[in-house]
Amino acid sequence: MSVHSDTLQPLVALPNPDQPPSETVLLPVSQERVLKAVGTLDELAQNMLEKSGIPGLAISVVYKGEKIYAEGFGKRAAGSEKKVDPDTVFLLASLSKPVGATVVATQVEKGRIGWDSPVREFLPWFDMGTPWVSDQVTVGDLYSHKSGLPDHAGDDLEDLGYDRRTILERLALLPKHSFRTHYAYTNFGLTAAAEAVAVSAGTDWASLADQTIYSPLGMTSTSSRHADYMAQENRAAGHMKTDRGYIVTDLRQPDAQSPAGGVSSSANDMALWMQMVLNEGMVGDNKVLEKAALLPAVSPQTIIGGPRSMNARTSTYGYGFGLDVRPTGRVKLSHSGAFTLGASTTLALVPDLDLGIVVLSNAAPSGVPEAIAASFLDRVELGMDSRDWLSGYSKIMAQLTAPVGSLVELEKPKDPEPPRATNAYLGHYENAYFGSAYVEVEEGDLVLRLGPKNQELKMKHWNGDVFSVQPFSENQPAGSKSQVRFTWDANSGEARMVIEHLNSEGLGAFERIL
What we know:
The chain is α+β, with helices and mostly antiparallel strands. It has helices spanning about 30-40, 40-50, 95-110, 130-135, 140-145, 155-160, 165-170, 185-200, 205-215, 225-230, 260, 265-280, 290-295, 370-380, 390-400; strands spanning about 55-65, 65-75, 90, 240, 245-250, 265, 280-285, 285, 300-305, 315, 320-325, 330-340, 345-350, 355-360, 425-430, 435-440, 445-450, 455-465, 465-470, 480-490, 495-500, 510. The relative contact order is 0.13. Keywords: Hydrolase.
């Protein structure tokens, strides 16, 4: 059967023939549709607060170069009467990455450094474990998470209180994936790249961010220093979920990974930043950065995960930005941020619509920010929610706050093997990656002390030479229950202990030296 072209009727508005096919989107969205979706945000946010129980959140929306919505909901702190407003300052967590990418772009524009510049040109001490990779790894490799470092490399050292330089130096000791072939999300890999950028500019990262992005945009409540966040009067405290609901923690201090997770900002300030990105570096007639320097950051640089079917769209990552294709065919630039100790955030930018939304919350990962943003974009493009986004995202985020350790929810054996005499376990233990550990006696019980924070873990006998500990940190959420296992060398008789929750990369063995 043949069909003549003159009998075909267009189902959608035909595109501008001068527009490149790769930039063509055939499903139109009117301004009326956008404004109607914005009009549902108050109710949407209130419903999400009630369903989730999180204390507070703030939202801003920008459209066609203007901020068209900014509101706060709930309380800055559980038990407080102080309300969240659009100027309330939140921890951004990993929204710091796309913000930081725009800082890097300003220096790329100036020619001080390039996305393809080897990090060692500026940090000669930086070591990836092998000479060739150490010499070749670039700012872009680290900003796109394809350097070969393992997932969240160095975060465990941050939990123990090590400073930025020490953590970056010890990345050399970690086992690596193949260079430039594997996506693995790393806060401290990206931080190393940012450090190189700061050195190229002759200043520290926090000052560079303020000089190049925050101050020029008028982001007066935004900082890359944690002390500035803590000093804000209008500040949203961090919260952790417990059996009694959300409680204030304020335990997260992310200065060591500031370029990756240490920015604090407000919904109003983030609206200024979104406008600049959507306008390709311009704010009104003022140029903050060159489009050519920004474009690589918002372009695919690595594949996050392969598609599960031939029909699936592939998620990619640029330099600090996540990139997806919406069901409507529009490109979405996005990122989320999460601290298990009290922050959950997201942003989504749709360049074709000149539209952006940011959602900031003051609670551990809940799925609420992501669900609000996803519902909003559905309502803009489709006129309705395509699914129950909160149900889906809350299940994903629950994995981040789930307790870790092989002993979680297990009871001590009823007839355990007895331990050795207490003195057999005491001493000073060393590990090249994690540093010193001390097993001591306190009020008759064994205690394990770790890192510069002198993190104290009470050791309870489990079975034989195995003891249970209950670590609590950003990467070991409340309820975690791990084991410490002691062994003795058959020849020297020296003690060795393996700390399970520090052994994800096989580096959790400590040798006793005293």
